[in-house]
Amino acid sequence: RVHGGLDCKLRALLASFIPVSRSMAAAPSPAGRIALVAGATGLVGRCVVAELVAREDVAAVHCVGRRAAELGESSKIHSHVVADMATMTELPEAIGGHVDDVYLALGTTIKTAGSQEAFRAVDYDSVLGVARAARAAGATRAGLVSSVGADPGASSFYLRVKGEAEAAIGGVGFESLVVVRPSFLDGDRAALGQPSRPGERFAITVAKGLRWLVPKNYQAIPVAKVAHGLIVKMAEAHPGVVTVSSGELQELS
Description:
With 253 residues, the protein is an alpha/beta fold. The chain has helices spanning 8-15, 43-54, 110-113, 116-136, 157-170, 198-209, 223-236, 246-251, and strands at 33-38, 58-65, 77-81, 101-104, 141-145, 176-181, 185-186, 221-222, 240-245.
């Protein structure tokens, strides 16, 4: 069993030695699957990219964002600047017109975004825009990083938008959609130049100290585990929508 504290680079290295189950995976492109990642500069997104690059069944990893990003030296990684992901109707021409899988790891907070409207523009509009463009380019599998408690009927604006995004992506038409709902993300935001989230850090510290009392679904989860669980579940390519709780992600190895 792989220890949950391993960072995404080490987990990616280990993943490169794990054979892919061809019977469970959807048919790849001739030279391997072509993946699209939105939110590749974030905590979970960076780990998704690192692990995908290490997989033999992945030929290319295209990352879209509002600015160019340095995501590693692998020849598989391609970075594309998209000024407005919310209104995109097609993928950048340099991608080549086709992708097999799309990983949606975009996300912010109301505080960081500055307003509820700005938050929704990222966590709903941009996520949906990328999903639609990927589906139009042939993507059959999608993975969405959501949140524990996501619900279109939630009283919390944050959780309501997350739930609405899940429902909207579910209606795009992917053959297989995996939605992961992690609890507090345990990762180094400062190393990525991201604003600190004092409330998140406090909750993680408390949860770790009282781990034996906190249900697994609400314990802080290493970002590498979220990325790994998303990739594992997407590779299974179950038809329809598969929702994976934070507790389930903790158990995947």
